[in-house]
Amino acid sequence: MTVLIKNIGQLATPLGSSAQRGKAQGEICLLKNAWLLMEDGVIRKIGEGEAPCIPDAKIIDGEGRLVTPGLVDAHTHLVFGGWRAHELMLKLQGVPYLEILAAGGGILSTVRATRGASQEELQDKAAAALREMLQYGTTTCECKSGYGLDLDTELKQLRAVKALNEAQPVELVSTFLGAHAVPSEFAGDRAGYIRLLTDRVIPEVAKEGLAEFCDVFCETGVFDAAEAEEILKAGLSHGLGAKIHADEINPISGSQLAGELRAVSAEHLIAAPDGGIEKMAEGGTVAVLLPATSFYLDKPFARARAMIDAGVPVAAATDFNPGSCPSLNMQMVMSLACYKYRMKPEEVLTAVTLNAAAAIGRAHRIGTLEAGKQADILIWDAPSLEHIFYRFGSDQVKTVIKKGIEVK
Ligand code: IZC
Ligand code: ZN
Prior knowledge:
The protein is α/β, with parallel strands linked by helices. It folds into 2 domains: 2-69 and 368-406, Urease, subunit C, domain 1 (Roll), CATH 2.30.40; 72-358, TIM Barrel. The protein has 15 helices and 16 strands. Strand 10 (241-246), helix 8 and strand 11 form a beta-alpha-beta unit. The two termini are 18 Å apart. It binds 2H-imidazol-4-ylacetic acid (IZC) and zinc ion. The site of zinc ion has 4 residues, from loops.
């Protein structure tokens, strides 16, 4: 099917098939009075001025609006049982996130709810979240496991993602996060749990093709950097790319490890030290920053400007999960990145499209509007890029096109 979007007021997109870093992160392509032609879900041609006349093409009138690539949410914990609304009151009383976890709540309470749910129940709940994400403009989403912490429940979560990927329009990319916490049955035997992950669960996940990446929550009281290294290396040896929850609350060398392993991404990084940022730049690791988590936990915001200045490609994502970020709205993330990281609208656009795609190994296929890329496209209820940052709080996505098909 051939589709032509004409009468685009402003077309804004980063360019290229790999992450953009430094000054280049803010150097996007801006076209005025543009048109875009797609065929069978792939972008064929983009131009400025008078749109070509294509007989039989379906015409979408852009009505002078802004058009961008679809948003890529590169960090979510999409599949989980239950919620944790009761933790909001604890948080307001000043109980720290890690203290709730150490007392058997937090992640471990979601583990109990996820173990108790059927795959179908998990899928239905995640499907509702995906419908909402799509409304806000997310066309691709990374999903981490990590609420099973045993072989069967981890596989159940990952199988739910696989089934959902085939059942609805948002494209899903799976990450194995068995190293999200030490489950209570291994409370006195951390080494035993790590052995279960490296010798049994990671090989099974890889054999069944249920994940592309392996991630570790490297944090005080969870997994230290040496343990993270062992787990990530086991993942790499089974073909799972390395990702790491690094330096979220305490700087315990997660960002350094990410750079040294040339990890695809390091995520959170609120407390990342200069040395870790340098190592990430050397290793070509994408920084996936999660400003809505800082907002919700009332924590400092990651040093995005220092990372951009050091040559680290910066992406931004929601972190959607029941504990530290119950929001799945990428437009909220974009506003926070602009206001709190002091990133320019152009830099943020790259952060939520091309650099996010690079953080999940998809930059060759999505993340920009260019001939040959998949037709994942948003038409905004706004005339220009800066307008969507300015009018925070409203849903400004008017039309969502996924693989050439209008889905909102
Ligand atoms: O369920 O609390 N930080 N993992 C690491 C999370 C937040 C998710 C959760
Ligand atoms: Zn996370």
